[in-house]
Amino acid sequence: MSRSNASWALPVSLLLALVLGLLPLPVMLQPLRPYWLALVLAYWLIEDPDRVGLGVAFIAGLAADLTFGTLFGEQALRLVVMAFILQRFRARLRFFPMSQQALAIGGLLLNDRIVAAVIHFVLGAPSPQHEFWAAPLIGMLLWPLVFLGMDTMRLGQWKRR
Question: Are 132 and 125 spatial neighbours (Cβ–Cβ below 8 Å)?
Answer without folding.
Answer: no
